[in-house]
Design brief:
alpha/beta, 8-stranded mixed sheet, 7-stranded mixed sheet, 9 helices, 19 strands, globular
Length: 369
């Protein structure tokens, strides 16, 4: 399992950095996309990610730098699929209320057909997640259920339950969401992998005269096996302790991530925005964003093993570029300051063991078991 950061900038893309788009590549090769800012399909083409492997897309909130690339990506995803396979492919799309209307309006008005089917799951925000001026624009976020594109084969509204939104669970993975504080409704997603059977004691089985083969597979699946002698092998006698599954949290824009804590305990990695350095905290929070200290505190509260900072302001030069590679009047510093500040905060909090890195475009973070 690994994270591939396809866009790590806030607000707008530049020649050296795309806006929010993060891919989670699972062990079986399928890919889940988290946010899809403008130009994400081009970023994907430059990366190791194969568009045809994308099976789920999660949108944290409806600001353009997290959403404007979605119609284009959907249109290009089918290009690598065999026609017969495409007919059987269903891509699931998750995001805040209004996402369905956005998808249908952009694809419908542009007369853009898709090679595959889609199912849209809309997270219904609580009333306190909306800003006071929410209704002033007079924009309706609800699309009548009778209005749908031919490619849509399902739509579900997901309401909050116990302060979180339960998106799905398939036995191997489960995904939940919690509310973030931002200028509009915003969410963070937690991906939890189920534990897997521990290692098989082949030496102990050899003593029973059992050689590697189908019996090994049955025991690994937790199935009892009856030998020709009549003896029954209990898998619990031959398997080591279960191997814990991995747990990842990927957050959208936020100036308060406290509601994520209850569903984010013991994370392998926390992906959290750090738009500006600590000295700019007042302006940063006023705009609904976080500083390195704020992100680091969330990592402490979640007992995360690693913290990856992203959604970096354009004022900071990407950490993978030298000064000679990028010189811009808008670039006033180096993104390394964000990492330095987060590490200093963790050190002072007694948690220097939490690894910190500032992501840059095409950076890959491998999540080991």
């Amino acid at each position: 399992m690994k994270l591939v950061f396809l866009g790590t900038a806030s607000c707008f893309p530049t020649a050296s950095r795309g806006v929010s788009c993060t891919a989670l590549q699972l062990d079986d090769g399928q890919v889940w996309i988290f946010d899809c800012g403008e130009g994400s399909q081009i970023q994907i083409q430059k990366s190791c990610i194969k568009p045809g492997k994308i099976s789920k897309i999660f949108i944290t909130h409806l600001h353009g730098d997290h959403l404007f690339g979605l119609p284009g990506l959907l249109c290009s995803m089918g290009a690598g699929l065999e026609p017969e396979k495409a007919k059987e492919t269903v891509v699931e799309i998750y995001g805040p209320k209004g996402l369905r209307k956005f998808v249908h309006t952009t694809l419908g008005l542009s007369r853009s057909g898709l090679a595959f089917k889609i199912v849209i799951f809309e997270l219904v925000p609580r009333s306190d997640m909306y800003p006071p001026d929410w209704g002033q624009l007079g924009v309706e976020h609800e699309l009548p259920s009778a209005e749908k594109l031919p490619v849509e084969v399902g739509h579900t509204n997901i309401e909050t339950s116990d302060s979180s939104w339960k998106l799905f669970s398939d036995g191997q993975y489960s995904v939940s969401a919690a509310a973030l504080k931002h200028r509009i409704p915003s969410f963070g997603f937690v991906i939890s992998e189920s534990s897997s059977p521990g290692p098989l004691d082949s030496k102990k089985l050899a003593e029973k005269g059992v050689k590697p083969g189908p019996i090994y597979g049955q025991l690994k699946k937790g199935e009892s096996v009856k030998l020709e002698s009549g003896e029954i092998l209990n898998p619990l006698d031959y398997l080591g302790p279960d191997i814990p599954g991995r747990k990842v949290a990927i957050l959208g824009d936020t100036c308060d991530s406290s509601e994520m804590i209850p569903i984010s305990e013991d994370l392998d990695v926390l992906v959290h925005e750090a738009t500006n350095e600590n000295s700019l905290k007042e302006t940063c929070v006023a705009n609904g964003h976080s500083t390195p200290d704020m992100a680091a505190q969330v990592a402490v509260d979640c007992n995360a093993r690693s913290l990856v900072l992203f959604h970096v302001s354009q004022r900071y030069k990407p950490v993978d570029l030298t000064i000679s590679e990028e010189k811009s009047e808008e670039t006033t510093g180096d993104a390394n300051i964000l990492e330095t500040e987060a590490k200093e905060y963790l050190k002072n909090s007694g948690r220097p063991d939490i690894d910190v890195v500032v992501a840059y475009d095409f950076y890959e973070f491998v999540i080991m078991k």
